[in-house]
Design brief:
elongated; mainly alpha; single chain
Amino acid sequence: SGPARSVGAVVCGYSGIRTFEPQPLRNLLSAVGGTSVVLGLVAMATNVDSLYAAMKAMVCIVGNNIRALKEMERTGGFQLLGMLIRSKSHLVNSNILHLTFTLVGTVDSEHE
């Protein structure tokens, strides 16, 4: 029950018929929990590949979505990400470090 909620679509409720229209992930992130979902992926990473995938998602989302960037700043998401990366330092390789520097560059360029 409750209101109709879609992921990746526009929901039109008329006689039980719903129409779905695909949308880019960066536009839908707020419908499924915002950047905390991607931070959760980083937290759940148990190997290099999953940490790389989570960091790549974070870089793509924060780098292309000003709303996600503002949410990360407002909620202390970057500090949390730093703590998560520190706790997973045994998984960090040059590719993940490159993504981290890319993310820092994205954040710095927004403040200039």
